[in-house]
User: What shape does this take?
Amino acid sequence: MLFKQMTICGVGLIGGSLALVAREKKLVGRIVGLGRTQANLDVAVERGMLDTATRDPATAARGADLVLLAVPIRTMPETLRAIIPHLPDNAVITDAGSVKGWVVRELEPMLRPGMSLVAAHPVAGKETTGAGAADRELYVNRKVIITPSKSSTPEAIDKVAALWAATGARVDKMAPDEHDLILAHASHLPQIVSSALAASIDDRRVGERIVADFGAGGLRDTTRLAAASTEMWLDIFLTNREAILRTLKQFGATFAEFRRAIETADERAITELFEKGRRMRSRLK
Assistant: This one.
């Protein structure tokens, strides 16, 4: 057993999926869920992922030696502020946010002596949300990135890493700012490109015909991310602005290369750009 009690703040897809594995493999002694809506908490209890569900931060915090913040990124400070007075002095705080530098800078100053923050990002998800969407197989062969910081003790890092590894995930470790720049390229930029493409042809017509009505698999695949949660992505864009702006600048340069090559009918340049894209795509698994 890694922890006596894990309190999950936000028992949705991410927190609920971890709870299912932790329960099944007896990684924690007790699991408590803190949530905003009773209906979602009831689903979590019915599915057997929680011992106790509550909407009261103090009740959720008592006895927790591990807290998982699986709430929207910009609500993490408010959530931690509400529960931290009621936590044991040795509590480990972790999270599941897609941005790490902002999370570390906001949360670490709140900790009392003896507490440890081990920020983490499970790079997994699907379109459905809530406790009903939780899936014990969600993390199998997916990456979970741990970003240690000044309050992260070796023992706390090892225990959080072991918890995630038990889900079948491949655990990696890196600095928070390194994580944010990598994910800005690999995750945040694709979301922007997909949403920008969808927005650019929304209600666009040629004559009387709606352009999107003629889109086939390519348009559906390329704009799939545009259906994502606005709330989640707003948080990511506003808390990882610097890294995202760097990636947008680099993407803009490549986009400009495509435009110049087409304007000048430069077959060689177009071919080289396509080949670069094909090479990158072949590396994805």
Notes: Strands lie at 3-9, 28-34, 52-54, 66-69, 92-95, 116-122, 143-147, 170-173, 205-206, 209-210. The longest strand covers residues 3-9.
